[in-house]
Amino acid sequence: MLDQTKNKMAAALLLGMSERKRAESGEYTREYSDDDILQLLPEDGSPVTIPEILETSDIPRSTLNYHLNRLVEVGKVEKRKPSANVVLWSQID
């Protein structure tokens, strides 16, 4: 089993991929901080959509969505849904 793990890691390194880091608890560590995500939103609190954010970022859509929802839960970001197909995100002062 150890040889298989070493082979997978070596293959990943050869392909330019890295293993995601895990905390001592075994959970994956976050690749983006709250500040990284907040910097993608206008400081003046203007609402933006995820597609607008993605125009200036290379963060995967699902990762961005996850972090924005988490920031809503802790009270740093507001999420509004003015229509069925539009979600607006804005920084809270």
Protein described:
- This protein is α+β, with helices and mostly antiparallel strands.
- The protein has helices at 2-14, 34-38, 50-54, 61-73; strands at residues 77-83, 86-91.
- A two-stranded antiparallel sheet has the order 1-2.
- Strand 1 (77-83) and strand 2 (86-91) form a beta hairpin.
Task: Name the descriptors.
single chain; 93 residues; alpha+beta; two-stranded antiparallel sheet; 4 helices; 2 strands; 39% helix; 14% strand
**Low-confidence segments, ≥5 residues, pLDDT <50?**
4-18
- Measured between the Cα atoms of the first and last residue, the distance is 51 Å
Q: How much of the polypeptide forms β-strand, as a percent range?
A: 5-15%
User: Outline, from the CA principal axes?
Assistant: globular
Helix content: 25-40%
**What is the string of helix and strand elements?**
HHHHEE
Strand order of the largest sheet: 1-2
Topology:
Blueprint (H helix, E strand, L loop, with lengths): L1 H13 L19 H5 L11 H5 L6 H13 L3 E7 L2 E6 L2
Antiparallel strand pairs: 1-2
Give me a quick take on this structure:
The protein is an alpha+beta fold. It has four helices and two strands; from the N terminus they run ααααββ. The longest helix has 13 residues.
